[in-house]
Design brief:
Strand content of chain A: 25-35%
Number of domains of chain B: 2
Number of strands of chain A: 21
Largest sheet of chain B: 4 strands, antiparallel
Oligomer: heterodimer
CATH class of the largest domain in chain A: Alpha Beta
CATH class of the largest domain in chain B: Mainly Beta
Radius of gyration of chain B: 17 Å
Strand order of the largest sheet of chain B: 1-8-5-6
Largest interface: A-B, 19 and 18 residues
Helix content of chain A: 25-40%
Distance between the termini of chain A: 51 Å
Structural class of chain B: alpha+beta
CATH architecture of the largest domain in chain A: 2-Layer Sandwich
Number of helices of chain B: 5
Order of helices and strands of chain B: HHHHEEEEEEEHE
Radius of gyration of chain A: 29 Å
Number of strands of chain B: 8
Number of domains of chain A: 3
Largest sheet of chain A: 7 strands, mixed
Strand content of chain B: 15-25%
Number of helices of chain A: 16
Distance between the termini of chain B: 20 Å
CATH topology of the largest domain in chain A: Ribosomal Protein S5, domain 2
Shape of chain B: globular
Strand order of the largest sheet of chain A: 3-4-2-1-5-8-9
């Protein structure tokens, strides 16, 4: 079921001879025919492969590749569709190697953006005309050929247009693409998805969202019914406190309204709390992971750019606790948060237990009060040598700045350091939730 | 402006070279005239694409004073010198490090007979090397021009048995980035 991949260029077709995963330390390269000649597009290819700009690592889970092609590809980005197709076929062991008998051949030209949309390119006429000899040869060998290009490019390639260029349309199937998914489908490849790098915490989003939805609905109904009472209920004050991110004062004020004799004020406070809960980011949007960097036996620690290894959870279905790690040869711990909850205020810390010492606490980021976009954030920490410890890695996320709730949390966790931490933590999380902050955490232990 | 700076650097290097030569003359009573002039020596040290001539290689391998002068010139004009490694074993090296510069050799998974040479600097710097040179213990000089860095990293792909790769792996060789 192997397929030959040809990249259309203005100088003629370039066959993808092989795709090889390389050491992630290496920059991805495109070489000519197995030689040490790196083509000028090698730099762009590396950007196309490596995250955060690249899509190949994102979808195929490896950061460095070498591609060998049969003819030079000098410039531009129209090679991207062909290269992506080669990676997709290689991932399924369906890419025909040089000289290998192939069941089919594909010829591609097009740019691919980060969302895998196929973008039209120029010089289609030249690229097709220059590939006539190849198309004829494939027809003679009886190898079916499919030409893939962006939808707009494919539209001009009618049967008569193909025939005008001396190519038999019967041996040249044209497929226009809007998105790379259509290519995968046409080649019977699995649907593209980003491989899991972190273990998601199981969450009950449906139930939570449902509760939040009814909370929001209740808020709307209450505002309608109590509209006249709203201005006297304390609502303007709550909004002011909220805008100033004084979440503790807001919490106290809502508590007072709830406990008071004013019924409408209590109902309004309850509605406001429901709304706060609705706004709070869902915990399942934040995946935590811890990686460790280790020195090979008898060797020094690898440099910071070395790819660390992901720690494995104790139970596969929950990421709350990771298998303990040995301190022997441990060079660094890398804490990672993957945010898929949109733009939020996000802050992470790691704290040893029971002594409650911070291993990771970026105070500067906290005071900066900047929202984090969706994506991955990482922090690297060198643990103290030979000190066994148990610690918790926590990420806090909110639609509002988290500096004030964090300051409150620091005080709460330090007030009673003799109390069992777990019980303390549960009450802290509950209070953080009341202040519009979502907390997700994972436990890990470093053993001798 | 750059030409003027390069000219100043050349005359500075020439002055050092001539002083060292004069000192050598004082120390050595009878010494044959150097077969390679300073201009060629300077060009070999500074022009990435100028290959050492057989005469130059021969002088480097046989004339200690000439070799010392050339080493001093390389020290002056290079961004960094990655010295011979005090290794516990004579196993081939795949890594050198000095002054924040790092040179790594990684075999290609696609073809083990090919090697990636990766040059990077740990801190940010505007200076980038245009040549990597390696001088072996026997006095042989190997050099390869470097491409412009990409994201602070320079990478070249070479045959594993290329003379420069052998020299870079040699624990006794001195490597210069210029």
């Amino acid at each position: 079921m192997s397929i030959r991949v040809y990249i259309g260029t203005t100088e003629g077709p370039a066959e993808v001879l092989r795709v090889t995963p390389e050491d992630p330390k290496v920059r991805s390269v495109v070489c000519l025919g197995g030689k040490t000649v790196a083509l000028p597009i090698a730099r762009n290819y590396d950007s196309f492969v490596r995250e955060p700009t690249g899509v190949v690592e994102k979808y195929f889970g490896h950061a460095a590749f070498r591609i060998d092609v049969g003819a030079p590809i000098e410039m531009g980005n129209s090679w991207q569709l062909g290269v992506f197709a080669a990676h997709a076929l290689f991932a399924q062991d369906r890419l025909a190697r040089a000289g290998e008998q192939a069941e089919g051949a594909i010829w591609l030209t097009g740019e691919v953006d980060r969302s895998l949309t196929v973008i039209p390119v120029a010089h289609i006429d030249e690229k097709i005309s220059r590939s006539k000899a190849l198309f004829d040869a494939l027809a003679q060998e009886g190898i079916p050929l499919t030409v893939y290009a962006a939808h707009d490019n494919a539209e001009i390639m009618s049967d008569s247009w193909i025939a005008q260029r001396g190519i038999d349309p019967a041996h040249c199937r044209i497929v226009g693409l809007e998105h790379v998914d259509a290519l995968s489908q046409d080649l019977s490849l699995p649907r593209l998805s980003v491989p899991e790098r972190t273990v998601e915490r199981p969450q009950p989003p449906r139930e939570r969202r449902s509760r939040a939805f009814w909370g929001a609905a209740a808020l709307v109904a209450l505002v309608a019914v109590l509209g006249l009472f709203a201005m006297s209920s304390g609502l303007p004050g709550w909004i002011e406190l909220h805008r100033a991110a004084r979440m503790g004062d807001l919490d106290d004020s809502l508590d007072r309204a709830n406990a008071g004799d004013c019924l409408s004020c209590g109902l309004m406070a309850h509605a406001y709390r429901s709304w706060l809960d609705f706004r709070r980011p869902a915990p399942d949007k934040f995946a935590l992971a811890i990686f460790e960097s280790r020195a090979p036996a008898g060797q020094p620690c690898p440099d910071a750019s070395a790819e660390p290894e992901l720690l494995v959870p104790v139970a596969a279905e929950t990421n709350e606790r990771l298998l303990p790690s040995s301190l022997a040869g441990l060079c660094a711990l890398v804490f990672e948060v993957t945010n898929s909850g949109g733009s939020v205020h996000l802050w992470a810390f790691a704290q040893t237990v029971p002594d409650r010492t911070y291993m990771l606490a970026d105070r500067q980021a906290l005071s900066a009060g900047i929202r984090s976009a969706e994506g991955i954030q990482r922090w690297t920490v060198s643990p103290p040598a030979n000190v066994p410890m148990r610690y918790q890695f926590v990420t806090l996320a909110s639609r509002d700045p988290v500096a004030e709730p964090v300051e409150w949390m620091f005080r709460a966790l330090f007030q009673e350091r003799t109390r069992p931490y777990e019980a303390d933590w549960l009450s802290v999380v509950k209070e953080l939730n009341r202040r519009g902050v979502t907390a997700v955490s994972v436990w890990h232990e470093l053993t001798p | 402006m750059a030409d003027r700076q390069e000219g100043r650097r050349a005359s500075y290097a020439r002055a050092i070279f001539e002083s060292v030569s004069a000192l050598d003359d004082l120390e050595t009573e009878t010494r044959a005239a150097s077969p390679v002039g300073f201009a060629e020596m300077y060009r070999i040290a500074t022009d990435p694409h100028y290959a050492p001539s057989p005469t130059f290689q021969s002088a480097l391998e046989s004339d200690d004073a000439f070799r010392r002068n050339f080493q001093q010139l390389l020290d002056k004009v290079s961004l960094t010198r990655l010295p011979a490694v005090a290794a516990a074993s004579s196993a081939p090296l795949d890594h050198r490090e000095a002054d924040g510069w790092r040179v790594d050799l990684r075999a290609s998974a696609a073809d083990p007979a090919q090697v990636y040479v990766i040059i990077e600097r740990s801190d940010s710097t505007t200076e980038t090397p245009a040549t990597i040179m390696a001088e072996t213990a026997s006095g042989s000089l190997e050099k390869v021009p470097l491409p412009a860095p990409d994201g602070g990293v320079i990478q070249i792909l070479l045959e594993a048995d290329a003379a420069i790769v052998t020299a870079l792996r040699d624990v006794d060789a001195v490597v210069y980035l210029r």
